[in-house]
Amino acid sequence: MGRVQREVEQAGSLVVEAHNVNGAAAKEAEALLAQARTLQAAITSSFWDLGRVLGVLAERKLHLALGFSRFDQLVEARLGLSKTLAWRLITVAGRLPKKEAMKLGQERAHALVAFAAASNGEIDPVEVARLDQPLVGDRPLSETPVREILAARPRRPTPLAQRADKAIDKKLAAAVKRRATALGLRVAEVEVRSDRVLIALTRSQAERLARD
């Protein structure tokens, strides 16, 4: 058998193997989608399980086997779920045990997870849910309205390095504007964007420059 023929046969076997792998992934994806549709029918009592199924679809990138380039395209087209809701369900199922999540309900469970994520690790959502601890005021979690939990989420501070960069950019913009004024050019706005500085003129200024 010649070298070229062997290479052709090897390439053919790889194509067959890839086809079989994709076929198996597609079957797995379809099975999970069927399971997800069943859970959707009773989402109030099955939101945690639905989140787990969606999590498997996303983690294994099974949307690719069905011809979708992104996970959110798959869930929107095949399940009618928005990207936001899908990832909320996945996050809740990934951060809370089923018992605690079901006790709180879908909306409050999501609010707790979002609150904990904004706390930079200071709050353990599992412990709060298990002990029904208060997040806002003195009321236990189960008695706190979801909107209050979301509204009270800690605001993540801007990193020091980022604040320093913004301060430097602000000084540079002010210096450029002063220099432009000294040269007789009154600019409307100076904006620093990474390695570029954008200088904006009013329309009348631009027309005057064009005439000159």
Poorly predicted sequence stretches spanning 5 or more consecutive residues: 11-21
What is the count of distinct domains?
3
Q: Figure out the total of helices.
A: 10
Q: Strand order within the widest sheet?
A: 1-2
The structure class reads mainly alpha
Helicity level, as a percent range?
Answer: 55-70%
The outline comes out as flat
Task: Provide the gyration radius in Å.
Answer: 28 Å
Overall average pLDDT = 82
Please give a handful of descriptors for the protein shown.
5% strand, 212 residues, single chain, two-stranded antiparallel sheet, mainly alpha, 10 helices, 3 domains
Describe this structure in words.
The protein is mainly alpha-helical. It folds into 3 domains: 3-95; 109-156, no CATH class; 160-211. The chain is 67% helix and 5% strand. It has 10 helices and 2 strands; from the N terminus they run H-H-H-H-H-H-H-H-H-E-E-H. It has helices spanning 3-40, 43-59, 71-79, 83-95, 98-104, 106-118, 125-131, 146-151, 160-182, 203-211; strands at residues 189-193, 196-200. It has a two-stranded antiparallel sheet. Strand 1 (189-193) and strand 2 (196-200) form a beta hairpin. The longest helix has 38 residues, at 3-40.
